[in-house]
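To make this tangible, we now present a fold written out as C-alpha cells:
***
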Amino acid sequence: MTGQHFNLILIAGAMRSGTSLLQHVLCSSPEANPFVHGCRYLTSQIAVYAQYAGSDRLYVKDYLGGPDGLFDFSQAIVERLLAETHRQLGQPHHLVLKNPELSSYLPQAAALLPQARFVISVRDPKDTIASMIGVGDKHRQKGVASFLAGAGRDIDRLCASYRQFYAPVLQALEKDRSGLGKRVCFTTYESLISDTDRTVERLAQFCRISLSPEGIGKEGGWRSKVDREKDELLNHPRWSAYVTDLSGGPISQASVGRYREVLSAAEAEEIDRLCADLRRTFGYTPS
C-alpha cells in the first residue's frame, strides 16, 4: 500500500468458524495490535467499491470518470482508513483485523490492498451451523431481527449462508493469474484446536509474524482492547449473542463436535449433503 509501512493481515471466513480465535492468536504477537472488534467499516467500504465496479458500474462515469477513477478513489479511501486505524492502535508492525463478511469481497479487497495477506477460517459446517442456530435462538429471545433469527433451523438457508462465505474466495483462486494464491491461507478451526503448535508455526510463516506457540491460549490472557465488563458491543442485544463461555478464553476442544448436541441426525446428514463439495475441498470427511 502506498506510503504505509505495516504488514496487513486480514482474517475472514464463515461466521462462527473461529475467526475471533484466529485473530486472538495473531494478535498475541507483541509486534501486532491487540485484539479489536471486527473491521465492519473497512468491509463496508470495500463492498461499496464492489457494487459500483459491478452491478452499478454505469453510475460511476459522471462522478469518477470510469472504472479506473473508481478504483483510485476507493483505494485512497481504504488506505486512509487503514492508516488512521494503524495510528489509533499504536502503529504496530503488524495490523491484524477481522470480519467474516470480508470473505465475500476478497477479490475486491485483494485488488485494493495488494500487499495484504488473507487468513480464511474454516470449520466443519455442522459445528458452524449448529453455532449459527444458537445465535439465532438468542436473537429471537431478545427480539432482535436478524438473518439468523429468521432462518431458525432452515438447513437450506443456513447452508447457503455458510457457502457464500467461501464461494467468492474459491472462485477467485480458481481464476487467479496474479499470484493471489500466495496471499491466501486457509486454516481450520479443528487444526488450531488439536494441533496448535504446528498450526501456529504455519500461520507465523505465512503471515511473517513472530508467534510463540508456548504462550498461545494456554492460560487465556489474550492481548485485547476489549473490556468484557464495560464494552458496549458485548452488552448489545444483537452482538452479545455471538459471545460464548469460550470467547476470549484459553484454546479449548469443548465446541468441537458440539453439533451432536444441537442437530438431529437428519439435519447433520443434510448439511453433509449440501456442503459436500466444500467438505471435500477443506479435507473434512462425512460423519
